[in-house]
Amino acid sequence: MRILLIVIGVLVFRLAYSQERLLWNTYFVEDSTESDGWKSFDRHTSIYPQIAKRRTDMKKDTVDYTHTNLFSIFPVADLVGGITENRLDLRTGVGVGIEYAPVKGLYMQLGYAGGLANRDAIIYSGGAYPTAFFRFQNQGFTTYQYHDLRGRISYSPNKFFNFQVGLDNNKFGEGDRSLLLDGYGTPYPFVSLRLRVWRAEYVILHQLLRERDLAGGFFRKHAATHYLSLNLFKGFNFSFFESVIYSGKAGSQSRPFEWEYLNPFILYRPVEYGLGSSDKVQIGIQLSQKIYPSLQVYGQLMIDDFLLKEIMAANGWWANKFAAQLGVKGRNVFGIKGLRYLTEVNFARPYTYTHGTTGQSFTHQGTVLAHPYGANFAEWNTRLRYVGERWDFNVDVVYALRGSDFSDSISWGGDIIQSYNNRPGEYGFYIGNGDKYNWTKVQLTTGYMVVPKWRMRAFVTVEYLGKSHGGKLRSYLGGFLGLRTELWNDPRNY
């Protein structure tokens, strides 16, 4: 028996090490500034992940291996330890990943990492907490057991259609953050359809979300999303976004799935009115312009709710809820191949993404579906990144003005899980209202791809965190050591 186990182990190791690997669900800032694709009408770079469309290795950027049969098993590491805000943070996840592409157009992936961590996922600082779908606090301890399971099946029967189903994150946007739908939070079950016609790609996404109730269990909620990406001119993209979130309960009664939201060719707001509901509908646009092969300007506008006369009055009406982004990114700075940069400004007014009930906030398991700060913030975020054959060097600088709640039941619009009905008034709400503070974070990270075929990366991070509150500045120096398999995007620069 022992000999058999050794033989199986050797075979698995050889299989994992010998196979080329598909591009996993990672989305780094350089994806849409590749010099060979900046004028292409076929690439819709604000839709992530771009599974089974291309395959990447360490030496070439865009090599098409979609006809290649592939099966790969590889180990997954999620080991991080260090100091932040004068406390020790640990994460001890290990697991396995599987990729399988048996025929043209069909791609399957599965990744699992499980272990212990001493922070829950809803704390937006530090670097060692998990954002796992399954996580539990150990009774009598301040540690959390987590099982980070992610996977998806992608099938493209032809060049027009792509079907996906899985437990994972999705993202719409060109920036490091997205104010429409981002990939920082807890993964969720989903099903999606992508349709490519002419210069357009249309995404229909349905998500099954949940939040904890007062009894410690979960109540479900649903989200439906449309995203239309149009490459109108060479280098210019216009995209339209709309989403609706509705609770799985209506009062004390269970609410069935709303089949009307399955219609792929409708706007959600008229359907919401037709149902006589108060579901949460949001709309947004994404714009980007590639000025040079290595330079791109992009922006987003997300509208939750507003009245034009109240905006013109400039009186801080609470229901003027919207968020915006403006950024620029590029590569090969000063002619240095592999040097990339990104700088962007983001803001979200108080109560953006909130609803009258927790069941319809733009959240999932306590984590935000868009920007990790939630709402009631203004942020400047800059990244400089050098990527070599196996080494990478990163500098992240984040400065933010944020407004949070005091230790009472009143909501000032920063914690988007809280009901906006708990607000203290009708007017006078501006970014920074409530418990106002300034947030500065600087991170220096060096990474080395230990096993490129497994995307297993060792890294060292040194960080400075400054919080200015009430005229007092609290400063922290920290750092982390880690060994991670880069299966999903999570820079922890927030």
Average pLDDT, all residues: 81
Tell me the fraction of residues in β-strands, as a range. over 45%
Q: Please identify the oligomeric state.
A: single chain
> Main β-sheet, in a few words?
18 strands, antiparallel, barrel
Q: What overall geometry do the principal axes of the alpha carbons give?
A: globular
Distance between the termini: 49 Å
Uncertain stretches of 5 or more adjacent residues: 4-8, 10-31, 35-39, 52-68
| Class per helix and strand makeup | mainly beta
Number of strands: 25
Q: What Rg is obtained from the alpha carbons, in whole angstroms?
A: 22 Å
* Total helical segments: 3
Fraction of residues in helix: under 10%
The ordered string of helix (H) and strand (E) elements is HEEEEEEEEEEEEEEHEEHEEEEEEEEE
Organism: Wandonia haliotis
Protein name: Capsule assembly protein Wzi
InterPro entries: Wzi_sf
Give a verbal description of the structure:
It comes from Wandonia haliotis. By secondary structure, the chain is mostly beta strands. It has three helices and 25 strands. The chain has an 18-stranded antiparallel β-barrel. Strand 3 and strand 4 (106-117) form a beta hairpin. The longest helix has 17 residues, at 2-18. The radius of gyration is 22 Å and the shape is globular.
